[in-house]
């Protein structure tokens, strides 16, 4: 696949820290071509306002401030499966973890029929919630699952899960000769290991990955993996689920550069990303304001985005030896992973401001 960037000029990757604070990055991260008027329309969101979260004392802040993001993602990942909705994901381990971490919720859902439906309706309220968030996480889980399974079937022997959180693929997708590596913050990694030992006691049935406790904001991915048995000479699939939009652009590019340096041709890198126009406030899709305020309430605001075009995503991959092999927008993701859903442009069935990309490491001869 060629470079192909000439037909779709775009801002490649940008952080709101630069938009708001006026900090300039290196030339390769700046505007690739004119992007038109920079005036924000009246209806658009204000990224600086959202970065501070919702107002103190408000209901949304009260509901989200004390609730860790990884707990929320665990709940969203299990809800469709718990409700036995069509085309739900296969993550049975997430249900076990959720029940152990949140036993009161598990007991309520068992004793009160209809409580799951009521909870989902509340979370996805079209005016005061985030409609489509459960389907979004469900579809995202299925997409990453599918990619990892396919990679293993095609002979890739290492799976590196970046910012693992409560990811369960190491315990569900183990195969002979395949190594899994989970990278997360030291305290998060320690908590995860303790939880796994309590919930998945049979290490033969649920083989453990190699845990790597590392803060990637302080050390490089290369240095983190150097402390493990990771082999750069083997093909690897790297997953980066739910992370890039929390990283400033420089950190995102450093991560991509590390993946490029650590990868053999044929290796793969998968991530989801926030649409740049939404981050900058030139577009205001359904559910974005509530989503952005909710994550900011936890001290984790969205700071980076990318244009959802092949040219922009390829430009992110190309300097590091990768080329774009798949790009799915929200509508395509829903059609592929949750085909029973009907697309509604006003209130989409999944969050409509994220897209999904997979890149493949090229041999030097393929880049010429």
From TrEMBL:
GO molecular function: methyltransferase activity
Compositionally biased spans, kind Polar residues: 27-52
Region (Disordered): 1-55
Name of the protein in question: S-adenosyl-L-methionine-dependent methyltransferase
Domain of life the protein comes from: Eukaryota
Alphabetized SUPFAM superfamilies for the sequence: S-adenosyl-L-methionine-dependent methyltransferases
Lineage: Eukaryota, Viridiplantae, Chlorophyta, core chlorophytes, Trebouxiophyceae
Keywords associated with the record: Methyltransferase, Transferase
GO BP field: methylation
Family: Belongs to the UPF0677 family.
């Amino acid at each position: 696949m060629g470079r192909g960037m000439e037909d779709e000029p775009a801002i490649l990757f940008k952080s709101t820290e630069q938009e708001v604070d006026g900090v300039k990055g290196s030339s390769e991260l700046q505007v690739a071509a004119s992007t038109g008027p920079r005036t924000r329309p009246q209806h658009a969101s204000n990224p600086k306002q959202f970065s501070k979260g919702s107002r103190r004392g408000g209901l949304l802040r009260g509901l989200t401030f004390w609730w860790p993001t990884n707990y929320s993602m665990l709940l969203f990942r299990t809800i469709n499966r718990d409700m036995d909705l069509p085309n739900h994901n296969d993550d049975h381990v997430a249900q076990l973890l959720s029940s152990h971490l949140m036993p009161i919720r598990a007991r309520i859902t068992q004793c009160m029929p209809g409580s799951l439906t009521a909870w989902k309706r509340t979370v996805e309220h079209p005016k005061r919630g985030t409609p489509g968030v459960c389907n979004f996480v469900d579809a995202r889980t299925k997409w990453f699952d599918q990619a990892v399974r396919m990679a293993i079937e095609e002979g890739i022997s290492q799976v590196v899960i970046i910012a693992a959180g409560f990811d369960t693929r190491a315990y569900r997708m183990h195969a002979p000769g395949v190594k899994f590596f989970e990278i997360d913050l030291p305290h998060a990694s320690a908590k995860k290991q303790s939880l796994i030992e309590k919930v998945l006691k049979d290490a033969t049935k649920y083989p453990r990955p190699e845990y790597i406790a590392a803060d990637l904001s302080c050390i490089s991915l290369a240095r983190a993996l150097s402390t493990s048995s990771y082999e750069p000479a083997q093909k690897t699939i790297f997953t980066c689920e739910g992370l890039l939009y929390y990283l400033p652009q420089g950190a995102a590019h450093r991560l991509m550069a590390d993946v490029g340096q650590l990868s053999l041709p044929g290796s793969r890198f998968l991530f989801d990303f926030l649409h740049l126009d939404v981050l900058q406030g030139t577009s205001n899709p359904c559910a974005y304001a509530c989503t952005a305020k909710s994550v900011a309430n936890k001290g984790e605001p969205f700071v980076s985005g990318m244009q959802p075009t092949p040219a922009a995503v390829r430009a992110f991959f190309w300097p590091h030896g990768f080329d774009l092999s798949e790009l799915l927008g929200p509508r395509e993701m829903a059609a592929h992973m949750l085909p029973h859903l009907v697309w509604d442009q006003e209130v989409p069935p999944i969050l409509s401001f994220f897209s999904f990309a997979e890149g493949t490491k090229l041999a030097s001869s393929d880049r010429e």
